[in-house]
Amino acid sequence: MTSGWTFLISFVSIVAGIVLGMTLRARLPAPKLGHDTKEVIRLGASLLATLAAVVISLLIASAKSSYDTQDAHFRQLAAYIVETDQLLVQYGPEALPVRKLMRENVPAAMDRIWNEKATASQNTAFTVNSLAEQLHNAIEALSPVNDAQRLLKPRIVQASDEIARTRLLIFADGDKPILTPFLLILIVWLTVIFTSFGMFVEPGAVAWTALLVFALSVSSALFLVADLSQPFAGLMQISKDQLRHTLAPLS
Predict the structure, then answer these.
(1) H or E segment at 170?
(2) Which end of the chain is more exposed for a tag (fewer CB within 10 A), N or C?
(3) The pTM is what?
C-alpha cells in the first residue's frame, strides 16, 4: 500500500469513527452512558491508545532505520565509484575507455536499481547486466606496462569489486513495506480510540477542529512510516540524481 493511500484510508477511517462516536452520543439514552460505562470505555481507549502509540513509534524507528541503511549504501557506492575513477586517472590514458564505460554504466545502473525496487518482489533473483560485465572485463583487461600501473591495477580491481559488493547489498537489503493486515488492524485501533473521543465530547466547532487536527496528525504519522519504508518511491525517496552526476564529464 502506498503512503498516499495509507494517509487517505487512515484519515477517512478516523473521521468516520469520530462521526460514529458523536452519533452514538446523540442516540443512546443518557442512562446507557452512565459513570461506570464511561469509565470502562475510557480505560479501554487508554489501553488501545498506549498500544497504538508504542506500535507507531516502533514502526517509525524501524522504517527510518531501513531508509538510513539504504541511503548509507548509496553514499558508499558513490564513494567507491569516485575512488575507482580517480585510480583510473592515475593509471593513465590507457584507462580512458574504462572511464567512458563507467559513465555509461552508472546512469543505467541507477535506473535499473530504481526499477527493481519499484516493481520487484522479495523473490526476484539478482542478475548481472551486460554493462556491468563489460566494465568488469574492461578492468581485468588492463595490461600494466610499468611499476606504477602494476601497483594501481590491484587497487582498481578491489575498488570495482567493492562497487559490485555494495550493489549486491542494496539488492539484498530489500524494502520493508508495512504489511497490509497489520496496518489495517492499527487503523481499526485508532478508529475505536477516536470513536470513544466522539462519544464523550460535546459537538461544536472547537471540538471538531481539535479532533480533526488530531486525526490529521495520526494519519501523518502513518504516512511517514509508509513513505520511509519505501526508500525508492514516494515523497521522501532517495534521490538518484546525486549518483547520476557523481562522475564529472570527461574533457
Answers:
(1) helix 147-172
(2) C
(3) 0.76
